[in-house]
Design a protein that fits this description.
Blueprint lengths: L26 H14 L5 E7 L5 H6 L1 H21 L6 E2 L1 E9 L5 E10 L1 E4 L5 E3 L9 H21 L15 H13 L4 E4 L4 H13 L9 E4 L4 E4 L5 E4 L1 H9 L10 E5 L7 H13 L15 H9 L37
Helix pairs in contact: 1-6, 1-9, 3-4
Length: 350
Amino acid sequence: MCPRQECGYAEIAYNSCRNRHCPKCQSLAQARWLAQRMERMLPVDAFHVVFTLPSGLRPLVLDNRAVLFNALFAAAAEALKELAKDPKYLGAEVGITAVLHTWTRELLFHPHIHCVVTSGGLSMDGARWVQGKSAAFLFPVRVLGALFRGKFLARLEELYDKGALRLTGASARFADRKVFVRLRRKLYKTRWVVYAKPPFGGPEEFFRYVGRYTHRVGISNARVVALDDARVVFRTHGDSTATLTHDEFLRRFLLHVLPDRFSKIRHYGLFAPGPASKKLALARTRLADVGITAPARDGNAPKDFRELLLAITGVDIRLCPRCRLGLLVRRAIDPALDLPPLARGPPRVP
């Protein structure tokens, strides 16, 4: 609550449940992730590339989230790395960070991946840094989309042939191989959407932008504008809203609960963990050879989570959101208040 008498702002804030699907418990994790990315990011521009699965695949993906999300990550990363290594485009190894996103503003199921891709890369022999041919161009998106499509569908067919796909519910019809083959042929004839945006504002601004997707869930509390015994109303785009029954709202929200222990953020190429870190260090050396170095960072990073959020995001959560003058203080919740019971975590998804 705000201690200023002329303000009197107060809000109930429960202890963090630390569940990664909670709308309120991910800000600190996001800030820490962003700080780590800043430490590893190369001092070059980066592109924002989005890979989207066609709507015809969504029933299969819903019933096979873990294996097909893995296939989505692999197909996107391999397509980027393959084109990057082609001398016609770059002839180098790039750094890639990929983030899975599964929802629209209406909470519909829409699986796609946001990728941060360095605008240049380390030459295949490690002898030099290769800069991209254009500051506004990475790879031709139609070529990238076709390559992504081929790699994903090859994995899908392999999983189908091995019997590794669960074909129940809306995807039960694909148990008939003829139906599956028709779907595959149709998908091969479809242009898959790949979107690439030129770099803007430097790598730090870019990661701040992509950081919005790393620890978000389907909806934030701030988007809920009305709630009663029959409906939930929440903002979608601009002033538009969606009105759903409680059951439909929960159904849509649960579409985006990830499989247990599933990693929604992955790194490839120069950003890959483990032994590949040596290539990242070599890339820094090759950049320094041509006079490109990262700005010095303050080694005394804030340790208090409130100071960390302020340093990274510029948001001071201690400041009263109403008057912007008082520093919020904590008060114990009055046990006499009629408050809803604590909720348990969401169910696991296989």
